[in-house]
Amino acid sequence: MSRRLVLVRHGQTAWNLEGRAQGHTDVCLDETGRAQAATMAPYVAAMQPTALWSSDLARARETAAYVESATDLTARLDPRLREFSVGERAGLTGAEFAERFPREYVAWRAGHVTGHVPGAETTEQVVDRMVPALREILAATAAGRCSVVVAHGACLKVSLCALLGWPASADTALRGMDNCGWSVLEEADDGRGLRLASYNETAHPATHGPDFATDAPVR
Asked: What are the structural domains of the chain?
């Protein structure tokens, strides 16, 4: 009778493909992203979710719309599920980032999720808004059922680690989720919190266009 959270990363955007930092910028899915979402949706629907939640950013909303069609659920939007704000890095390619913010770029390449770019959210700030939202969604899920959350790679990865009680440094041991990849968290049978049932499952050939920090560093 364990409850589950199915965490889905949005489909590809043109900025993913170009390696541009998205953050809170409202960028829509591209043709590949729409195809990824259409392919992913039946697999997520097969888990028979009873609730669907989404970040309010366009790329997540559009991805969630495919799950809506496959499940007859209506996505509820929550701005707490947004990606990291990337501050002054928004819209920059990797090369532009390196040129304008060389010190921050080095930190990003070394594994820091934003590189401390001016105006960017910290991991703590993102966890502080994401984790309560995810806990509320899980608490509202009936025993033995699951809820689906469509969001973004970097915020999902750090929040997943926090929900599992892993140290903050553990996120560097996980590769970023692919576009329209999903991960499943479930309650442990012994009542001791959550456990990771699966990570970064995909229903399409992997396309590794970077999403702001691959929603993790791209090397």
From this structure: 4-85+122-211 (3.40.50.1240)
The SS3 assignment for 108 reads: helix
Q: What are phi and psi of 61, to 5 degrees?
A: -60, -45
Looking up tokens 């970023």 gives 176
DSSP letters along 139-204, please? HTSPTT-EEEEEE-HHHHHHHHHHHTT--GGGGGGSPPPPTT-EEEEEE-TTSSSEEEEEEEE-SS
What's the burial of 28, exposed, middle or buried (CB within 10 Å: 0-12/13-18/19+)?
middle
Q: For 132-170, how does the pLDDT look when each residue is reduced to its tens digit (9 = 90+)? A: 999 999 999 999 999 999 999 999 999 999 999 999 888
Q: What is the pTM of this model?
A: 0.91
For residue 16, the one-letter residue type is N
The token pair that represents 100 in the structure block: 């304008």
Residues catalogued as catalytic: 10, 83
Residue 79's CB is within 10 A of a number of other CB atoms, namely 11
| pLDDT tens per residue across span 96-126 | 999 999 999 999 998 888 999 999 999 999 9
Report the distance separating Cα 125 and Cα 62, nearest Å.
25
CB neighbour class for 169 (10 Å; exposed up to 12, middle 13-18, buried from 19): exposed
CA distance 33 to 212: 16
